[in-house]
Design goal:
The chain is an alpha+beta fold. It folds into two domains: 12-92 and 113-186, no CATH class; 206-260 and 280-356, no CATH class. The longest helix is centred in the middle third of the chain and has 19 residues, at 117-135. The strands form four sheets. The chain has a four-stranded antiparallel sheet with strand order 1-2-7-4, sandwiched between helices. Strands 3-10 form a two-stranded parallel sheet. Strands 5-6 form a two-stranded antiparallel sheet. The protein starts with 11 loop residues before the first helix and ends with a helix. It has helices spanning 12-27, 43-52, 72-75, 96-101, 117-135, 152-158, 206-209, 228-234, 241-244, 256-259, 286-290, 294-300, 310-323, 329-337, 344-356; strands at 32-37, 81-88, 107-108, 141-144, 163-164, 170-171, 179-186, 216-218, 221-222, 250-252.
């Protein structure tokens, strides 16, 4: 509903609501919550500059929707405030750095080891929105979890949940960056929290220096076309040959620019069972995963973010990982079993991998 003509000064009950929202959010499993205006500030221009340079690659959806991505009130008319929440997802126990050094093992980004976060967080946000609606009637509330054109990191920074680091991740000084974000757009003129203005990255450039594929053009500027997360998830065709060897054993996503960040020493383990690893995906071998049939892939990735890459993309990624693995019998035999795969794309990457082993 429109708020035009309404008194936008906080009513007494609205003035007390932010503290209640934070309390309810923590009861629902969120780590933190903040409130900001429906304004993304300078982040809107940064997005446009990034798009103009073509750094989005095949992610054409990043440029769709006009100003809806950076203007909340255009996406949901009447929006005056955005409630931003975060939820930690790092599983326990977990040793991502050890997983990266096991060249015969498959490395999967830590957020994808468990169930897809969208459904869980959306349900919790809907409950939070209902609590708000029960407290102050006459306003609209709509929840988002990476499901609409929303500049969620920009809004979270403006809501006081952290600063945007040189790796483009939102970083909280007491929790690192291994967390999901979600938002509630509301027409209620709630009191806002101060934005997180301090940049704690300082002179550190570990994330920029340690990117396996040199995807960072500079601080806070990522050329997604070189990013392993893009290559293994968003890209639908062949992975450029010059980027295959640097990918190592990363077969779905990449966490390197987060893992090397000094602030990760403050990361919080998840309290959600749904985010714990399923089907042994935190310690599976490349060869084992490569031999999954399509039926096995669909069964074992049910309710998982890994489904996004599709079965052919999954085999493509694993073939690259096997090409970078030691020349052991399981590695060679797995590749040979897929040498005549029906997919031209899969065959191409298998042939590349076999050539890496001198075959």
């Amino acid at each position: 509903m429109s708020t035009i003509g309404k008194d936008t000064s906080p009513a007494p009950e609205l003035a007390d609501l932010p503290e209640l929202i934070r309390q309810w959010a923590k009861e629902l499993g969120f780590s933190d919550a903040g409130i900001t205006t429906a304004d993304t500030g300078e982040h809107a221009q940064r997005l446009q500059d990034w798009l103009d340079k073509g750094y989005q690659g095949e992610m054409e959806y990043m440029g769709h929707h006009g100003d809806k991505r950076y203007t909340p009130a255009s996406l949901v008319p009447g929006t005056t405030r955005v409630i931003s929440v975060r939820m930690d997802y790092m599983p326990t126990p977990d040793s991502p750095k050890e997983a990266l050094t096991n060249r015969e093992g498959a490395y999967i980004t830590r957020y994808a080891l468990g169930r897809d976060y969208h459904k869980l967080i959306r349900k919790r946000l809907a409950t939070l929105a209902k609590k708000i609606d029960d407290s102050v009637s006459g306003y609209d509330h709509r929840a988002f979890v990476d499901s609409a054109p929303v500049l969620e990191r920009a809004l979270a920074q403006r809501a006081g949940l952290g600063w945007i680091g040189k790796n483009n991740m939102l970083i909280h000084p007491k929790a690192g960056s291994f967390f999901f974000l979600g938002e509630i757009f509301t027409s209620a003129p709630l009191p806002i929290d101060p934005a997180f203005e301090t940049d704690h990255c300082g002179s550190c450039s570990a994330c920029l220096d340690k990117c396996p594929t040199d995807a960072f053009v500079g601080a806070r500027v990522l050329d997604a076309r070189r990013c392993i997360s893009y290559l293994t998830i968003e890209l639908k065709g062949s992975i450029p040959e010059d980027l295959r060897a640097p990918m190592g054993n990363r077969v779905f996503g990449c966490d390197d620019c987060q893992l090397v960040c000094p602030w990760q020493k403050f990361k919080k383990p998840t309290q959600e069972d749904d985010f714990q690893p399923r089907h042994g995906l935190n310690n599976s071998s490349l060869a084992e995963l490569f031999l999954w049939t399509e039926e096995e892939f669909l069964k074992r990735t049910e309710g998982s973010a890994i489904r996004r890459t599709g079965y052919e993309g999954w085999l493509r990624n694993l073939a690259v990982g096997l090409g970078n693995a030691p020349s052991t019998i399981p590695v060679i035999e797995a590749l040979k079993q897929r040498a005549n795969h029906p997919s031209e794309m899969v065959r191409e990457h298998v042939q590349w991998a076999l050539a890496r082993h001198g075959l």
